[in-house]
């Protein structure tokens, strides 16, 4: 049995590994000639780490994961601590630590684990067709590939999604812009073992430790869609948006490299069904593009892959296995997309009274409430 995997990102590589574990041959096709991840880093929460362990790639997480042992919210303008707590109770409850990682390093190591020479780069999907014999992918260079079935992990702008649904799905602007990148750890910004967030006025600044003594940082600012951007003014723009904020935020802005700082207008896709059409299945962002507000985008793709493998362990009937995959994932991923959307709206001040109430709650938070929410999301995955 053979599968075509469209996309060599986190979802595509995870899917290929999961299917290989079940004895299924996979051929991977990636649109770009060289992988250039969108976003500097990614939060892989404990459910994602469990998936990587299950797929035999746990060492990658050990090597790349930062020492995130604590979590804190600070008031953005004064810098005063609103809440600070250890994540040890969460790790004990769910059975695995979270691993913030550099996205480029994660994707590179996953591809190397598989075999870089076994990935077909520069193959952008143009169309999909299927018949009783299997599935054929046609690429924009005119070439084709055929196999028994297809796993489409071709991202938020998925071509395969339109084929599966029979219509084009428009992405929804979430209402804010995110700047992100990497800087060296600096205690003047935040403790080296803590996920630290500064919040005020519907804006957010975050630093999260990753491997090699680096912070993954991001800034969130609610803004209209389509504003002009100029990399040369990144620091000045951020200084303007965060004028009057606490000194650690100013120190962070001073430390960033505009040439390696990403600016992303955040979108998601309205949850939909089905994720499968016959012998073609959507996986990762192709099936459930979400905002990053609960850190579950990459984790959900890894979960998809684990479930895909489990379904093929139960049956070698392709359409039955993919139907089972659809049934197992559609409600879970809908829940994650909508949870992220709710968190997005609260965090970014789209209802100021609700956001102020959240700030007030944070000042009374011991960590128990936040960790209960994280635990529920993590334990809702396929590996518990």
Walkthrough of the structure:
The chain is α/β, with parallel strands linked by helices. It has helices at residues 10-21, 46-54, 58-64, 88-94, 103-114, 159-165, 234-241, 247-255, 285-288, 297-314, 318-347, 352-364, 368-379, and strands at residues 2-6, 25-29, 41-44, 70-75, 81-86, 99-102, 119-120, 125-131, 134-139, 144-147, 149-152, 172-184, 194-200, 203-210, 214-222, 262-268, 276-277, 280-282. A hairpin with a 2-residue loop joins β17 (276-277) and β18. It starts with a strand and ends in a 5-residue tail after the last helix. It comes from Rhodanobacter aciditrophus.
> What is the CA-atom radius of gyration, in angstroms?
21 Å
Total beta strand runs? 18
Main sheet makeup: 7 strands, mixed
Number of H- or I-type helical stretches: 13
Q: Roughly how many Å apart are the termini?
A: 29 Å
Contiguous low-pLDDT stretches (5 residues minimum) are none
| Secondary-structure-derived class | alpha/beta
Determine the strand fraction and express it as a percent band: 25-35%
Rough outline: globular
State mean pLDDT (0 to 100 scale): 97
Range of helix content: 25-40%
Instruction: Give me the side-by-side strand order of the main sheet.
Output: 5-4-13-14-15-12-16
